[in-house]
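Design request, C-alpha cells follow.
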C-alpha cells in the first residue's frame, strides 16, 4: 500500500509542553492545573498534504490559497477527535462523496495487494508529558486501521498495533506491562482507535502500565474536547424549542442557548452582549430570547437584539449573515463544553480540559471589524485558558494582523 507502506512513521522530536489552560473561569491570580492539549498535527499523507506539521497555539489561524489544505487540516483534527470519542472508522471516513478513498493522496499508487491509505496523527501535551499518536488507515480495498503507535517524549513506544492479517478485522496490539522488554499482546478491533480502547483493557497494576494508561488517557481527553463549529445563517432564522439547550455545530438553535446562558451565567452573558455590541451595526443594549406568539410556533423561542432599554427590539433573523455568524461564534468562544453539543470526557474535571473550537471559514461573511473583534475575543479567552481556537481564514489581511500578537498564523501555501 503506497501511502501506508510504512504504516506508523518514526517518532519526531516531541514539542515543548503547552501553556496551562482551564475550561472554567478562574481568578486571574489563581493557579491552574495543566490540561491535556493538542499542540501539533502531523499530516504525513492526508488528502493533498504530505509530511506537513502544523503547530498549534491557543489561537491558530490557517491561511493559504484555495486548495492549500486548510479544510483538510481541520478535517484531520475532527477525525482524530471522533476516533478518540470511540467512533468507528466507517462513521468517521466511510460516508460522503468518495468515502475513505477521498482522503488518500491522489498520487498514491496501490501496492501488489491493491491497498492504498492515508497517515496522520498529533502530539498531545499534558501531565504525562508530550505524547505522540501516529495512525495509518487502509482505505482500499477495505477500510481498517493498518497501524497505530503511541510514543512518549523519550522516544519509547508505549503502544503499537499492526494489521498482521488483512483478511481479519482485528489488529495485533502490544503495550508495555512491566519492566524493560515486557509487553502484553492482544487483538483489538481494526475499526477503532486502540488508544481509546486501552483504558478499558489495562488495569494499571504496574508502573509501566500506569505510564501507558496515563499517556492514552491524556490523548483521549485532549481529542474529545473539540467542537467543530460552522454557523449556518440560513438555518438560524427559524424559532427553536426552549428545550433545545445544547448548541449544535451549525448554531441553528442559537435562541434557546442564548436564554440558557443568560439564566446560568450572568458574567458570560454580559461579555457576550459586549461582544455583540462591538461587532453588530447600530446600538445594542442587550440580547433577549422571547416566546413566539400564536400559530403553530406557540411555545417556540426567537432571539432579539435590544437596541435600548425602552426602545425597539430587532429579531436576530433580520440580521445579515455576517452578523449572525459573528454572534454565534462569539457565543461559542464564551461558553463551555456543558453548553455545546459534544461529548467531553466526563471522568475528568473540567479544569483539566481545554476546549478546542474548530472553525473552517472563520472569516466567511465577516467584515474587517467583526474579524478583528472575534480574534481579540479568542485571544483573551485563550490567555485565560478557557478555550483554544483552530480556524481557517480566507484573508490574512488587516484584521488578522491587528490581532497577530496573540495569534499563530500557519501559511499552508509555503
Amino acid at each position: 500500500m503506497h501511502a501506508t507502506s510504512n504504516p506508523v512513521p518514526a517518532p519526531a522530536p516531541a514539542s515543548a509542553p503547552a501553556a496551562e489552560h482551564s475550561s472554567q473561569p478562574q481568578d486571574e491570580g489563581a493557579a491552574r492545573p495543566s490540561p491535556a492539549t493538542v499542540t501539533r498535527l502531523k499530516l504525513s499523507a492526508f488528502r493533498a498534504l504530505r509530511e506537513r506539521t502544523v503547530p498549534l497555539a491557543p489561537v491558530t489561524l490557517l491561511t493559504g490559497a484555495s486548495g492549500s489544505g486548510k479544510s483538510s487540516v481541520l478535517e484531520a483534527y475532527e477525525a482524530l477527535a471522533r476516533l478518540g470519542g470511540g467512533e468507528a472508522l466507517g462513521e468517521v471516513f466511510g460516508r460522503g462523496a468518495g468515502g475513505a478513498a477521498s482522503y488518500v493522496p491522489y498520487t498514491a499508487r496501490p501496492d501488489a495487494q491493491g491497498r492504498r491509505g492515508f497517515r496522520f496523527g498529533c502530539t498531545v501535551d499534558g501531565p504525562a508529558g508530550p505524547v505522540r499518536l501516529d495512525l495509518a488507515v487502509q482505505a482500499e480495498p477495505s477500510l481498517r486501521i493498518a497501524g497505530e503507535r503511541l510514543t512518549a517524549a523519550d522516544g519509547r513506544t508505549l503502544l503499537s498495533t499492526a494489521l498482521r492479517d488483512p483478511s481479519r478485522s482485528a489488529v495485533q496490539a502490544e503495550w508495555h506491562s512491566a519492566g524493560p522488554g515486557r509487553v502484553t499482546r492482544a487483538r483489538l478491533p481494526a475499526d477503532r482507535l486502540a488508544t481509546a480502547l486501552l483504558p478499558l483493557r489495562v488495569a494499571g497494576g504496574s508502573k509501566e502500565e500506569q505510564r501507558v494508561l496515563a499517556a492514552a488517557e491524556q490523548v483521549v481527553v485532549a481529542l474529545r474536547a473539540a467542537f467543530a463549529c460552522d454557523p449556518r445563517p440560513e438555518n438560524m432564522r427559524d424559532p427553536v424549542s426552549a428545550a433545545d439547550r445544547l448548541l449544535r455545530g451549525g448554531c441553528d438553535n442559537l435562541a434557546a442557548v442564548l436564554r440558557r446562558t443568560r439564566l446560568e451565567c450572568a458574567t458570560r452573558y454580559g461579555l457576550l452582549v459586549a461582544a455583540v455590541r462591538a461587532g453588530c451595526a447600530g446600538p445594542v443594549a442587550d440580547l433577549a430570547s422571547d416566546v413566539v406568539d400564536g400559530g403553530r410556533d406557540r411555545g417556540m423561542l426567537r432571539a432579539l437584539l435590544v437596541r435600548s432599554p425602552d426602545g425597539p427590539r430587532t429579531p436576530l433573523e433580520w440580521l445579515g449573515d455576517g452578523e449572525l455568524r459573528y454572534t454565534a461564534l462569539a457565543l461559542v468562544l464564551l461558553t463551555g463544553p456543558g453548553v455545546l453539543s459534544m461529548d467531553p470526557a466526563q471522568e475528568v474535571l473540567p479544569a483539566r480540559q481545554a476546549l478546542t473550537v474548530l472553525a473552517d471559514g472563520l472569516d466567511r461573511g465577516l467584515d474587517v471589524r467583526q474579524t478583528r473583534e472575534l480574534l481579540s475575543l479568542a485571544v483573551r479567552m485563550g490567555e485565560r485558558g478557557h478555550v483554544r481556537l483552530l480556524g481557517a481564514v480566507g484573508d490574512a489581511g488587516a484584521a488578522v494582523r491587528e490581532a497577530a500578537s496573540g495569534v499563530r498564523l500557519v501559511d499552508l501555501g509555503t
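Comment from the thread starter after seeing the answer: thanks! The two ends are 28 Å apart (CA to CA).
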